[in-house]
Q: What sequence folds into this?
């Protein structure tokens, strides 16, 4: 079942209402779902490999704390932040400005991902950001492949959709 963007995430505590949470695809909802966004976001950084390592380790520690509490939504949100650490570091490794496409997003396409007819800017490898991406990717794989996480994800999806 897709991530439900119609909910008012500012007023819903997903720890109290996990039945409303949908995994969605990739990083969907990573900057919406409370209280997890507020618990994890302050630790999410990737400017240098040292900062990325500290950030990824802290977020993975939160993943383990959510796991110990049998909190699937928290585990999934931590996994999403690790994935986002990888994807954003990788974007900055490829494009110094962080901009992947040339020109502004057309008004009718704002809030959606993709090129929307714009040309992709040339890539330039930044080895510092590439190392930050590798750090996050390793931690992301640990979370994504965790047996308890996989079991809880399957159970959550079977129970709630």
A:
């Amino acid at each position: 079942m897709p991530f439900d963007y119609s909910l008012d995430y500012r007023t819903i505590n997903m720890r109290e209402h996990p039945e409303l949470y949908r995994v969605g695809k990739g990083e969907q909802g990573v900057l919406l779902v409370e209280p997890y966004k507020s618990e994890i976001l302050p630790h999410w950084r990737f400017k240098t490999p040292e900062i990325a390592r500290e950030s990824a380790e802290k977020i993975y520690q939160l993943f383990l704390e959510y796991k110990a509490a049998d909190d699937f939504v928290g585990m999934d949100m931590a996994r999403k932040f690790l994935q986002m650490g990888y994807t954003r570091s990788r974007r900055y490794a490829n494009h110094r400005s962080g901009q992947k496409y040339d020109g502004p997003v057309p008004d009718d396409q704002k809030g959606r991902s993709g090129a929307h007819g714009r040309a992709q800017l040339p890539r330039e490898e930044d080895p510092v950001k590439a190392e930050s991406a590798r750090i996050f990717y390793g931690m992301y794989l640990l979370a994504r492949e965790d047996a308890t996480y996989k079991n809880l994800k399957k159970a959550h999806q079977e129970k709630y959709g």
Remarks:
- The mean pLDDT is 89.
- The radius of gyration is 17 Å.
- The longest helix spans residues 72-94.
